[in-house]
Amino acid sequence: MSNPILHTFGPSVWAAVPELALIELGYDQDDIEKKVVNLGEGENFAPAFLNINPQGTLPTLEAGGKAYTSTAEVTSYLVAHARNRVTVAPGTDFINIIHEEQYDPNFLILSARHDEELRSRASGFAMTFVQNRQNALAKHARTSQSAEHREFYDTKIAENGKILSIYQSKAPENVKNSFFESSRTHWDTVKAFILEELPEILPESGFLGGDEPGEDDFHLAAWLARVVFVAGGEDASKDGVRAIEKELGKPTPDEVVTYWTAWSGRKSWQEVYAKGLH
Ligand SMILES: N[C@@H](CCC(=O)N[C@@H](CS)C(=O)NCC(=O)O)C(=O)O
After folding, report:
1. Which residue of 130, 237, 240, 254 is surrounded by the most CB atoms within 10 Å?
2. Strand partners, 68
3. Binding pocket residue ranges, ligand 1, CB within 6 Å
4. CA of 146 to the centre of ligand 1 (A)
5. Residue ranges per domain, the chain?
6. What single-letter DSSP state applies at residue 114?
7. CATH number of the domain at 5-93, please?
8. Which tens digit of pLDDT belongs to each residue from 127-144?
């Protein structure tokens, strides 16, 4: 039987979860074939990829004639099929929580809370990303192969197009203001999670899964790395987490610093974030 195929992309937050897991679980490089789907070019919107994962998201894993189409499914497959019977603490309900839309780490990159932040998004990476996605959606939606994904394309073109029109200053004032409002709420929710929820659940040392990272930790590590990155952090090493203070407006909770420090000593973390946080 052919090896499983992991559809992945270096800068993707959620694809980092199975990337961390593969290393922690002792997979060899040739156990899994990797296929890069460039999200920055909207390659995930190609009908051929939607035929595998109708949501068009990464990570996606094809294994044993089945497609695993969410981060949680992909990662639990990898945990269940680890080489040499490496075992880690199994995932808990925490995985569902960290994937709730209110904590979506991807929205942070696109969000804008006021005009100045909007100008910065509209003249930087976010604009290129949103524009490329809209172009790719329009291109693929025109092809005959896209017919069975019509609803997907219509929804995505409308959602992404709304953000594009805000960036291009073409959206009505009320649409722009409600985007500012939802961006503020989103950041406030993420900050409250870091300041109030995480200190309650993080251990005094080590990981949620014990002395070694468990399944929950793979998800939390990638999430936290992304939030720190959006707050302006690049450095994955020991003190890198402190970049989040620009957003928190207060010291990083000790539990979060300790947790980050534990990850920063792992080979998996050092490899996945070798070129900096993302
Ligand atoms: N809830 C999904 C979210 C996955 C997700 O949003 N992945 C991002 C990359 S980090 C993606 O593929 N986005 C593409 C898109 O939304 O167009 C999961 O956990 O698998």
Report:
1. 130
2. 61
3. 12-15, 39, 44, 56-58, 70-71, 99, 106
4. 20
5. 5-93
6. S
7. 3.40.30.10
8. 999 999 999 999 999 999
